[in-house]
Design a protein that fits this description.
Elements: H1 2-38, E1 42-43, E2 46-61, E3 64-68, E4 73-77, E5 84-85, E6 90-95, H2 101-118, H3 128-140, H4 144-152, H5 168-171, H6 175-190, E7 193-197, E8 202-205, H7 225-228, E9 242-243, E10 248-253, E11 258-264, E12 278-283, E13 286-298, E14 303-309, H8 313-316, E15 321-337, E16 342-344, E17 347-353, E18 359-363, E19 366-369, E20 373-377, E21 384-387, E22 390-393, E23 401-402
Antiparallel strand pairs: 1-23, 2-11, 2-15, 3-10, 4-6, 4-9, 5-8, 6-7, 8-10, 11-14, 12-13, 12-15, 13-14, 15-20, 16-17, 17-18, 19-20, 21-22
Helix pairs in contact: 2-6, 3-4, 4-6
Length: 415
């Protein structure tokens, strides 16, 4: 009996020691395991902006009118490039250089008669240099009537070649009568010119590309992808003083309401656009343009969006075509590595590390992706996103995301 009790006591001691050893082992196992789990490799999401855009070629469409020379002659312009002028403004005058030789002959005789009556000796005709200098002064002082008179009378003969027999009729007139006749003849000569007056208010431009009629806004249906993508022959015409019949002189452009036609290579890129929608356009070296869709012309593969604008005309009007982008969407969100993603309960998400080596599954909404990273929706102010008809709390900028979700044991997942 005594031996039995002694053996039983030894057995109990051994059992207690064994249990204590098991407890110690479990404790250290959990400690080691806990430390391993706490050392997940994590990364914080990067706050960034994602822009989805469409490359496009942009064509200026204006309400514009080009004015042409109606004959050979000399043009004088009264407005500078880009100047805003009202309707009815005289932009240019064209002297048609018509044959006014008979009027000039009469004027020469009148002048000769006046000089004789005043006792003034005839003088030689001004040389070309003096004539040019006088003409420049006339233009500078905006004495356009004098300009045209000087141009038309520049080839008058020297009055010393006129003899008194030819002047008999004029010498019989009084000095006052001769002066009135002189002024009348000068007025007639100066009136052999044509005035160009604007039909509507706008910007004056001498940058004429020769395709103004092609881009008129009278029929927006014609601006198809095929219509716009032809091979253009754009001219670069300069303002000239001496012009020929049919030469373009200038054009007037309505700068208040104007449009651009944006070509789209893939019609599927604009499936969500409708007439009246707001559009953001980016062009290098020009601030962002905002306008509204006025017309959409589609074919099987391509499309053209016609957008009405009301700003930055002065930055764009001188070039007919610009390369740019239509900004479809601009969203703030997070960029995270693709390796962090895991599918769970029919949702795509990430594991976010919590305290004591525990993790939580957090759904994400992928907006865009590349070979290494994904761009995810940051949600509203409460970091809530919508997936299907349900709302979920998504990651925040302060969440430590597990880089490799495969290292997470199922028992460490809180949800």
């Amino acid at each position: 009996m005594k031996n039995f009790l002694k053996k039983n006591k030894f057995f109990k001691r051994r059992l207690i020691a064994f249990l204590f050893f098991i407890i110690i082992m479990i404790f250290f196992t959990k400690l080691i395991r806990g430390n391993r789990i706490n050392n997940y490799k994590t990364i914080f999401p990067t706050l960034t902006t994602f822009e989805k855009d469409i490359d496009t070629k942009i064509y200026n469409l204006f309400e514009e009118k080009t004015y042409f020379s109606i004959g050979d002659g000399i043009a004088v312009f009264h407005a500078s490039e880009g100047q805003k002028v009202p309707a009815g403004y005289e932009v240019a005058n064209l002297n048609l250089m018509e044959d006014v030789s008979s009027l000039k002959d009469d004027l020469n005789k009148v002048k000769a008669a006046l000089k004789i009556k005043k006792g003034i000796e005839p003088i030689e005709k001004e040389n070309n240099h003096s004539f040019t200098k006088n003409l420049q002064e006339q233009i500078k002082n905006k004495n356009y009537s004098g300009v045209y008179f000087d141009i038309n009378s520049s080839d008058e003969v020297s009055i010393e070649n006129i003899n008194e027999a030819e002047l008999k009729e004029y010498l019989s007139l009084s000095e006052d009568t001769l002066m009135l006749k002189e002024k009348d003849l000068e007025d007639k000569i100066s009136k052999y010119n044509f005035s160009y007056v604007t039909e509507f208010s706008g910007i004056v431009s001498y940058k004429i590309d020769g395709n103004e009629d092609y881009f008129k806004t009278d029929n927006l249906d014609k601006f198809t992808y095929k219509y716009l993508n032809k091979n253009y022959n754009f001219k670069s015409l300069e303002m000239e003083t001496k012009v020929k019949n049919g030469d373009p002189l200038f054009k007037i452009i309505n700068n208040i309401n104007w449009k651009v036609a944006c070509t789209i290579n893939n019609v599927s890129q604009i499936t969500n656009y409708n007439i009246g929608d707001s559009v953001k356009i980016q062009i290098p070296d020009i601030e962002n343009l905002y306008g509204n869709v006025e017309k959409i012309n589609k074919d099987k593969d391509h499309a053209v969006i016609i957008v009405s604008l009301d700003r930055y005309f002065e930055n764009m009007y001188s070039n007919r075509i610009h390369d740019g982008k239509i900004i479809v969407n601009k969203t703030k969100g997070f960029e995270i590595p693709k390796s962090t993603l895991i599918n769970r309960d029919n949702l795509t998400g990430v594991y976010v590390q919590e305290i004591k080596g525990l993790v939580k599954f957090v759904p994400v909404d992928i907006v865009n992706e590349n070979s290494d990273n994904v761009f995810i929706n940051k949600g509203n102010k409460q970091s809530v996103i919508s997936i299907g008809d349900k709302s979920y709390k998504t990651v925040t900028v302060n969440d430590a995301i597990v880089l490799n979700p495969k290292t997470v044991d199922e028992s460490r997942i809180l949800n």
